[in-house]
Amino acid sequence: MSINSLKASTDRGRAGDKIFSGVSLAAGVLILAVLFSVAVFLMVQAAPILSADPAEVTGGEGFAAYILPIVIGTVVAAAIALIIATPVGIAVALFISHYAPRRLARAFGYVIDLLAAIPSVIYGAWGYIILAPQLAKGYAWLAENLGWIPLFAGPASQTGKTMFTAGVVLAVMVIPIITSLSREIFLQTPNLHEEAALAMGATRWEMVRMAVLPFARPGIISATMLGLGRALGETMAVALVLSPGALGASLIRTGNQTIAAEIALNFPEAFGLRLNELIAAGLVLFVITLIVNMIARFIITRHKEFSGAN
Amino acid sequence: MKALRFGRAAAVISVAALALTACGSDNATGDTPAAEGAASSAAGVAVSGTLTGIGASSQNSAMEAWKAGFESMNQDAMVQYSPDGSGAGRKAFLSGGAQFAGSDAYLKDDEMTQAMEVCGPDGALNIPAYISPIAIAFNLGDVTELNLDAPTIAKIFTKAITTWNDPAIADQNEGVELPDTPITVVHRSDESGTTENFVDYLSAAAPEVWTYEVDGAWPADLQSENAKGTSGVVQTVTSTDGAITYADASAVGDLGKAKVKVGEEYTEISSDAAAKAVEVATPVEGRPELDMSLELERDTTESGAYPVVLVSYHVYCTTYDSQETVDLVKAFGSYVISEDGQAEAEASAGNAPLSATLSEKAQMAIDSIKVAS
Amino acid sequence: MAANQTLQRRQSQLTRGRLPSYAIWVVVAASLILGAAISSLVGFSVVGWAIITAIVFVLAATIVTAVAEGERKAKDKLVTFLVYGAFLIALIPLVSVLWTVLERGVPGLSYNFLFTSMNGVTGAVDNQAVEGGTPVLGGAYHAVLGTLQITLWATLISVPIGLLTAVYLVEYGAGKNLTKAITFFVDVMTGIPSIVAGLFAAALFTLLFGPGTRTGFVAAVALSVLMIPVVVRSTEEMLKIVPNELREAAYALGVRKWRTITKVVIPTAISGIASGVTLSIARVIGETAPILVTAGFASSINWNVFSGWMSTLPTFIYYQILTPTSPTSPDPSTQRAWAAALLLILMVMLLNLVARFVAQIFAPKTSR
Q1: Residue B305 placed within a domain
Q2: Does the distance separating the beta carbons of A114 and C187 come in below 8 Å?
Q3: Using CB atoms, which residue from B25, B97, B348 is nearest to C212?
Q4: Where does the sequence pass through the membrane (chain C) (predicted)?
Q5: Tens digits of per-residue pLDDT, C213-226?
């Protein structure tokens, strides 16, 4: 190989470098542009609600009074979902990556991935046909025995279509997402770390706690955030499972509502100001996600030292 | 080795894809297409093109029937209808996104004004196309028929009456053994024309009891068990003992249905009774002569009329840009309100057909559609 | 004599202080009995029995291990039980969902269903099927085609953009303000309610091509808005955990950065990326609301994503459930809906297999 040909290949390489970095930069900027236009679209569509006469907004007391209960409902539903789904999802991921026999693990991983793909309409239908009647029995028991706790205040819903049921359905929808991503990350834990821990005489749990979890923490948070995104924005499943109503503390009574379901239920017949109102509700949901994600990012950056590529 | 494996998989997948995509058919019912002769004779002129409508989901089943019937008579024409909802349909129509809208309510005055922008100075036409009686359906074991007057119905739905053996119900139903089951009210969770029409009935026929606003959404103060869509409320009532709801009559299946008191007698729900209620309706004031927006008289005392009824409209422009579109709209519009079209819809959707007088008036309105000058 | 030998073996140096293997079954049996006893006190039911038994078992086994083998071993046991338990708990609803879909979907999977559209199928046809006991006519062929086409286009749009953005974030833009902005806004994008994405795409195309522009491609754009953040987010995580040693080794050999990325970094992470892409497709393939406002609703076959309305399986399912073709006898519609759901799951399964396969081809050989 002559010196010239070596130089030529470097030149080509340099051009390739420039093009590649340029294209990836462009992709990033494109995303920003899309998001910016979505935001502009939302704001333009939502704007009339701010100047609207409070009496004309649904509920008759202005937009804040309309949106606040469903914001709380959204957060509660997502919280129930995550409280159930995060530990279970991570444990299932651990089971697949570190506990189950290797061969079974692949099959399980496959089934779990599959479940992420079931359309929300199906989860919704399953929720109200199969799950709700089952849970309704439990609610009756809770209302009878633990009714003094406001969360379980009776009378329990006859049909089981309550906030808690919605939360459980959301959890079932979110588990595959959390599991799928966490599993991939657990599997990427450097073998050396794991083996070092085991060589020191650590039990399996100690190995997981000291080598796997710290390595995977940012990834777990990312996975949870993706799950949260789905839980917050889920429309159809909640719309089918929940029997919505006014805000109330009891999780086992009819009532409460989430933003996404409110939009889905009322959008088809919405017209004029009502339409602006629903889009404004969408904007609020946007802001909630923004805040939650900011908090998550903040936590991740505090644990940055474990990431591979910094 | 890798390339080989990949190649094999690619081959398998592409063969599978081909197998899947190659043998699909649009001929689901196995019918042979109608003879050409029938096509031209039924519509008068041969029409072609695609007609786009967006609107109420209540009409969806009937629309499937109209589509199938119309397309089999006019091989070159196609109708597409997206059941997004009445609001979405009116919005799309007014912004020019659809050639006609299906709506559970006629255009309001300000919408009529807006319609002039897309339809020209004469604006839009509201034509009733789909009449569906709303059943007051309940799940009460052996009891499949109850006599109820409007105030009692209103009291049940405002939860002033909470058990089935309440004297107010029992007095109207001598000889019926009423259990002391608590009443579970089930209503629609989504905004809907069914809710609006039902509430409109309550507020007109029992104004002392029902003091809530007439709206497509159930009053927020009366929250109770609820579900999405007609099929949702019916499913909920079917699985809950002592539940009551309001739903399109065609969908309630084996549930008990209330006879509603009109004048001095109790009227059973039926297509004829619903059509009669629509026939005695008065035209909305201040509309163009040919417009058929109807003000239903919910408190009518006309014997044999069933006033809890949903009238769903087709909204057309009075003028369209091209002769082709005008022909297409006229042909489709005429078919929908024709005896054939209404019969097809009834067979599919179980709704009530338009009466001959209404159908005649609607035909006059549709005949007035012309090319924009 | 034999018993004596086993006893001696157990006393050997390596296994000292460990419970014999039959101990766990003793604890299981004891917990079953105790569980039955307690649950019969509060009102016996099989579910209650199972729950109480499980709790008693986990507690008892942990305590026994703690006494016999020490605290660290006990903790390890406890976590093992919890992990297995979580897996079993997660399986219950997931199996139930799958079972429901299978049970209700399989009867509807006929030749008619797979290879015809809903063109011309009216309520009268369904009524006839119910009353006359004839086979249910009409199928989801048009919806399958629509799903494939729309999802394909959405993937074609989102995967390159998402992948490249993730590459930029991890490899080029580390620490830059633009990176922070993109990361942040990608996160925000995960929170866009799907209907809003649909409305946005509809508004965009209305602006560009006039009102009422509804085609499969508009739907693909709407789905891309939902899909991109998932692709970016998962790819980013996967790229991040590629060890720096690999990159440095490549640089040390004089390999260009872009070659390093395409030949070393991405292949190392490909399994995770493929998982992420599959997940993102899975996320959007089941979307209903954005399709309704962007692609309309068709009952006949449409091969062209750039013109005409289209149905997808989720919209098909949605309308078959919510507005049955024949309101008087909704059973055929329900049957079609569940069969379509099963079909959708099968499609995703196939797609998943393909993704895994592709990942395997590109992935480097590893010890795992």
Answers
A1: no
A2: no
A3: B97
A4: 21-41, 47-67, 79-102, 150-170, 182-209, 215-232, 337-359
A5: 888 999 999 999 98
